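Colleagues,

For the teaching module next term, I've prepared a clean inverse folding example: a structure given as tokens, and then the sequence designed for it. I'd like students to try predicting residues themselves before seeing the answer, so please don't circulate the second half yet.
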């Protein structure tokens, strides 16, 4: 629906006892609201389409807070006036994770994608957390590499301290990214001296309001 074309005037029944202007006190007759001084006294407002009535889009008071809801921001994701003023969007995080051991022989020059650690969340700005438990399986001292990619480009990488054979370490880091619709956020990894193992792993995204 386009911007509504018609303006209408609400009618009022104003009384001093109800918080109105004593000079407008009239409990018997209805009058048009004065746009310069009158404010409707209501718990909330539903905003309607021209095709029907529902309770999808609303602004309302709960305790001492004002909340806003629509089809994309309802229930636990509703937003208060304080949320909007602070630039906070209370949305659920998106996470992909794995727990079974996987292995790689990929070299740092051509790292391998970590299976299952890929998310295409939609256009926006996100804070991203990466966590991975890695193990050196080579019979020599080795460093393992974990890399974050967004839209096909490297964003950040972390290298473990040197590990002896069968030594394990947890690599964890975070970054802030901005991507377009359809672009993926992915985790890659590599080793100088193959093979290497990855155990528990996680890729977590949280949208940032800008």
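(Answer key — instructors only)
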């Amino acid at each position: 629906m386009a911007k509504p074309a018609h303006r209408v005037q609400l009618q009022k029944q104003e009384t001093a006892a109800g918080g109105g202007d004593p000079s407008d006190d009239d409990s018997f007759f209805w009058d048009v609201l004065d746009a310069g001084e009158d404010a409707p006294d209501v718990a909330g407002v539903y905003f309607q389409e021209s095709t029907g009535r529902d309770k999808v889009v609303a602004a309302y008071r709960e305790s001492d807070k004002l909340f806003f809801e629509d089809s994309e921001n309802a229930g636990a994701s509703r937003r208060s006036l304080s949320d909007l003023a602070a630039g906070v969007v209370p949305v659920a995080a998106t996470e992909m994770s794995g727990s079974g051991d996987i292995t790689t022989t990929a070299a740092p020059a051509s790292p391998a994608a970590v299976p299952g650690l890929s998310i295409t969340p939609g256009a926006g700005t996100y804070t991203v957390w990466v966590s991975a438990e890695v193990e050196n399986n080579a019979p020599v001292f080795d460093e393992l590499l974990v890399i974050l990619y967004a839209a096909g480009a490297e964003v950040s990488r972390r290298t473990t301290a040197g590990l002896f054979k069968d030594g394990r370490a947890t690599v964890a880091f975070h970054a802030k990214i901005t991507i377009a619709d359809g672009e993926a956020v992915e985790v890659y990894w590599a080793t100088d001296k193959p093979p290497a193992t990855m155990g528990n792993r996680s890729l977590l995204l949280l949208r940032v309001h800008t």
